[in-house]
Amino acid sequence: MDRRQLSALAHADHPISAPLSDSTVEHLLHRAIRGQDDHLLDLGCGDGTWLLRALQAHGGVTAVGVDISGEGFDHVLSEAARLGLEDRLELRRQDVAEYRSTRKADLVLSVGAAYAFGGLLQTLDAAREHLAEDGMFLLGDCFWEREPDADVRAEMENGPQKFADLPTTVAQVVADGWTPIYGHISTMAEWDEYQWCWTGTLAQWALDNPEHPASGLAHQMSAAHRTSWLGGYRGFLGFVVLLLRRTPPPASTEVS
After folding, report:
1. Backbone phi and psi for residue 67, each to the nearest 5 degrees, phi listed first
2. Which residues belong to any copy of the Methyltransferase domain (predicted)?
């Protein structure tokens, strides 16, 4: 069991891989799905839980999820089969940056997966490529609630993705040709529930499986994550979900 598998295990009690409550997810999907026959594409879908919930609530919707991990796919596909939804859900194990769709989506989702594309603007470009002309994009990404100290910033921005404050984040999205039509900012309660589930689920697995070769690593990952959160970015790092549509080009002004 490697770190990717352990990370998937940490989400067992909070399968939405983001600081969002079940009611928030339900509300966001209700706002984003406009037709009963919409086609959905989730780029960086995790185990596919977002799509399974969308299919349960919206009869006729079809969905494709793409994720490089594939952890949890078997469980979600089995659950889809139990619910009679297997013919409407496809999960593909593939690098999202390399995926090319054969059908334009009415709704593209990418929640907490901007790192897979290299950052916010690259994620917007990817969504545009897969989206139907009048489609919508449900984007979830982090931002800085407050300016962090240098050590926290360095830890959270140790890859290609960098974060900004919320006004700057939204301004970047707008400047790239998108109009926000709805949004949700994760509450502290949503953050705390997500993080306690992540660290606690992994720690409990380690305690319940002391003889497993990965038990020690699971305990270390849980402790390190908890320390980083409680002693570092808690109250500094925010999370926003934006429901976006393409901004139409300005009308041309003809001089007679």
Report:
1. -155, 140
2. 37-160
pLDDT in tens, the chain (256 residues): 677 788 888 888 898 989 999 999 999 999 999 998 999 999 999 999 999 999 999 999 999 999 998 888 999 999 999 999 999 999 999 999 999 988 999 999 999 999 999 999 999 999 999 999 999 999 999 999 999 999 999 999 988 889 999 999 999 999 999 999 999 999 999 999 999 999 999 999 999 999 999 999 999 999 999 999 999 999 999 999 999 999 998 876 565 5
The CA distance from 38 to 200, in Å, is 37
- Separation between Cα atoms, residue 135 and residue 114, nearest integer Å: 19
User: What are the CA-CA distances from residue 173 to residues 25, 26, 135, 166, 240 (Å)?
Assistant: 21, 24, 16, 11, 12
Contacts of 115-122 with CB under 8 Å at 24 or more apart are: 115/159, 115/160, 115/161, 116/43, 116/44, 116/68, 117/43, 118/160, 118/161, 119/160, 119/161, 119/162, 120/161, 120/169, 120/172, 120/173, 121/172, 121/176
Task: Quote the CA–CA distance of 55 and 19 in Å, as a whole number.
Answer: 21
Domains of the chain plus CATH, in order, are 19-188+238-246 (3.40.50.150)
* Threshold 0.90, pTM exceeds: yes
- Both tokens assigned to 179: 């109009």
